[in-house]
Amino acid sequence: MGDRPIIFSSPMVRALMEGRKTMTRRLVTSPLAKCQIGDRLWVRESITRSGAYVQYIADHKTSGHVWLSHWRDARPSIHMPRWASRLTLTVTETNIERLQDITEADAATEGVERATEFNLRKWGYDQTHRMGFADLWDGLHGAGAWDANPEVVALRFTVARQNIDEIKDAA
Known about the structure:
This protein is an alpha+beta fold. It contains seven helices and eight strands; from the N terminus they run βαββββαββααααβα. It has helices at residues 10-17, 65-68, 104-109, 120-123, 129-141, 145-148, 164-170; strands at 3-7, 23-27, 40-44, 47-50, 53-56, 74-75, 88-98, 151-160. Strand 4 (47-50) and strand 5 form a beta hairpin. The radius of gyration is 17 Å and the shape is globular.
């Protein structure tokens, strides 16, 4: 069993907190492709710090670069220390597959919304979670990333609203 960090954006942290996200996909070239069942992932998210006090950006309605610019000591997720993590994911399933093999049900467990009317020109009238996920993937990896259909690791997990070291101590 290994412990690894995993980065999520504020909308995906909110989806984890709300119980809408129990799955994630990462490129097979990611270190997360080596995850095994039972591995634990501690979630890195954007925070601000004032002394020992931590404020989580995902807890605010306006999370993003504009909001972050108002905080002198804001830290992007990549710099979040392990001790400040409040979410721990335990891997329950791993699969290597092509990106476009994602089902509608799995796309919903990715925590994304359905494709919006704004994207009707791109996806036709296919307002599904799957197309919402395609939009997210292109937003993260660049235009055409969905169409490239790369190999990904699909990780299914349970979510504990607890720091990874608190869980370790409780075991």
